[in-house]
Amino acid sequence: xxxxxxxFEIVRKDILARIGKLKVKGKTIETPxxxxxxxxxxxxxxxxxxxxxGFKALxxxxxxxxxxxxxxxxxxxxxxxxxxxxxxxxxxxxxxxLKYGSIEITQDEILNFQIGIGADIGVxxxxxxxxESREEAEKSIEETIVRAREAQRIIQDTDMGWIGPIQGxxxxxxxxxxxxxxxxxxxxxxxxxxxxxxxERYDYPTLVDMILSVKRVVKPSHPLHLFGAxxxxxxxxxxxxxxxxxxxxxxxxxxxxxxxxxxxGTLRLxxxxxxxxxxxxxxxxxxxxxxxxxxxxxxxxxxxxNLFKTQEELRRVKESxxxxxxxxxxxxxxxSHPSLRDAFKRMVKYNDxxxxxxxxxxxxxxxILSDISSYRPEVVGFRKKLERxxxxxxxxxxxxxxxxxxxxxxRHYKEKxxxxxxxxxxxxxxxxxxxxxxxxxxEITTSLPTHTIIESxxxxxxxxxEKYNEVRILVENEEIKTLLKEIQIxxxxxxxxxx
Amino acid sequence: xxxxxxxFEIVRKDILARIGKLKVKGKTIETPxxxxxxxxxxxxxxxxxxxxxGFKALxxxxxxxxxxxxxxxxxxxxxxxxxxxxxxxxxxxxxxxLKYGSIEITQDEILNFQIGIGADIGVxxxxxxxxESREEAEKSIEETIVRAREAQRIIQDTDMGWIGPIQGxxxxxxxxxxxxxxxxxxxxxxxxxxxxxxxERYDYPTLVDMILSVKRVVKPSHPLHLFGAxxxxxxxxxxxxxxxxxxxxxxxxxxxxxxxxxxxGTLRLxxxxxxxxxxxxxxxxxxxxxxxxxxxxxxxxxxxxNLFKTQEELRRVKESxxxxxxxxxxxxxxxSHPSLRDAFKRMVKYNDxxxxxxxxxxxxxxxILSDISSYRPEVVGFRKKLERxxxxxxxxxxxxxxxxxxxxxxRHYKEKxxxxxxxxxxxxxxxxxxxxxxxxxxEITTSLPTHTIIESxxxxxxxxxEKYNEVRILVENEEIKTLLKEIQIxxxxxxxxxx
Lengths: 499, 499
Fold this sequence. Notes:
With 499 residues, the first copy, chain A, is an alpha/beta fold.
């Protein structure tokens, strides 16, 4: 068992998100964070400039360094070689090795090289799941696990941290299997290995499945890395699912193509009349000026903007976590892209797990902003509690639709009839719990969709009927009744026409 | 008639928003824009620093200048006095004069003073609608109109621009009346006069009523100013309604109170652990550092950030206008605050006017993101066209629910039966117009709420029944039918329980 080389202290939580302090070899960074990918042979932005701009960690490729500048890096150490005093993560270059079909290096060699150059965190020589077939995915998992076992002998006695990539691509059962095996080997940090194909397809719902299937297996005390994901639009969601580390070359690759990052996508530099951003680059230069620059200058400036934009997103997400407003943040944020919205809804599938792990109490109160609010952990948790809740073994109950008053309360108390109030999205809430958390701290800021109200009311009635011999409904507010009647008539008319 | 002193060229349009070039006295600014309010006796940020940071126009208070530094400003001119080469708007100080009950200055004097100091744009000595009573509102309108008439004699022969404030507060009929009278006097720029109380209450739906009631009267060739509104959260909506100029002291007033602007509100500086922004201030300083500074330095830095943030919002809005994506922008943006959402929905009331003024065609295509998309001008316009559309005087028609194929088309053609396809939110679309704009360019990126589908289907059927003797419904896709049946059963069950 490796232990204590990487310290990870969780300081704040919201949903499955955490703000953490990750410490290794005397260096500390705050998570969630994005590690800019530095290609040692094409540094769009120099590591020193990253450092000056507040990036405390980066990731680079050990294999590329080994291949071309081995002696120099070994002699000077990676920090001096890159001129970067922060935390340096080295990827093993597994992807490149596979891609170029090279067999010129063994895992032992690349592990020893990462140790030798003084990286702070390294990666074993895993086999990324490429392509789409299940066979390939299975093979990549098996080989990665074999290599992970073989690696233990070397990595065990080092003072650096090690990442254990969990392969399986979009095959959820395989990911779970891989996670279970990798978890046994207790790496410092785990990584969801190969989301690239899924991300390129904007298949965010599957990404939710992938992350959560790993998350359910790996202990929450380990940081979780999501390889190759750095698009601002999806970072908040990934953080909410419990990802702590991201790396991405997108800032530089986009810059190479004159693509300028915005909250929700990219714009082509040629199309921009005015930069819709306030970062130092965008406040200093005009799009036309940047367009006329030398390619290397232009790339550098766009890359910097792209990084700032990504960092801004993470800062906003962190701010939301600190205020326990991450759910609200995502409700607004995910409206920008249908696939993100679907991904957010996909989380509903994992309600039980999320509700169990997520912090349940907040002094801040809860906003019900849309139908998706019905699935926030506090609401799910409270509904579960309601299922178990039954004060005494009474035979009768009343469900009030609308507000209750003292007279109703007293009457029911005297008649020994349990009293419930219909409160969507919670459902049938015992009158005694109306002021309890979270119900008492919930502000319903929107008219919920009719469908949600009908579903919730139907559920509430069914729920009470199961518990009581006699359920009476007391309509104190005619609004819902009128709504139901209208829909009843409309749907009937339409259905008759359809016959 | 004053003419030609202020040139206003509209270069882009979306909904009622415009990107314009406003030119006066040789100075040109691009609208929509925010004029930072400069208090001559307490400059949180010096005008020169505003200029250096890309603010090409500001607004200051002529009355305060007159009161304390009259000779000096007259001698040097306002641009030299403030050390600001950009466009300077002077408010007449009507508000201060009322507030402090001063009668020491006449309208003629303050008009001549604004002319004398060389302001680029001035305001007459209007009477802002304060308080809540209708009587007060009526009085402020009457007096403002009298003064506006009296002012003509002096302002007519100047080379500067003049703003005609339209009073009435939240009283829509009074605003309309005032707008009608003021419009006759042909000021260069009109202003919605007194939204302050409404804004302080976050009563954005009423703000929509106010702006549009003025907008319907004032010619679109005039720029429209919204006094005292500068909160990032509502700027996009106000621009979409046709406001071109904003002024706000909020950046400085908030800074005075250590309040830091975000997209959706303010944070107290003491509460911030990390600035969730990438502006030069937020990238240079940490919240704790700013907190420890001298009050004047702290105020200046927060005020600058607050201005950058506001400017960023306007830049994003402009970017959306250029891409004809303002509606989509607002659909996402207004989810952040229920009152903003309600305000966006309030626009529906003005569908006819908006549809008539808004550009109808875009090569970009249309995204249906939520139920509110049903009200975008292109959808409303197309539905209106459908109402008028009827190829021949046929007796029978078929409404297809689901996709149509060639066989169905040919059969209906032969049998001389008009063929419609149900396409929410458009309703019953003639099969011949399925590829026409905007239908053919519409991407429905979400499952519309059940309620919207039912409404739309009911409307479609009613619409066809009015036009044809015989309407047949052909269900090619069972999904909607199943949905309707489910709802039918659920609502019936609930209603029975309610009896």
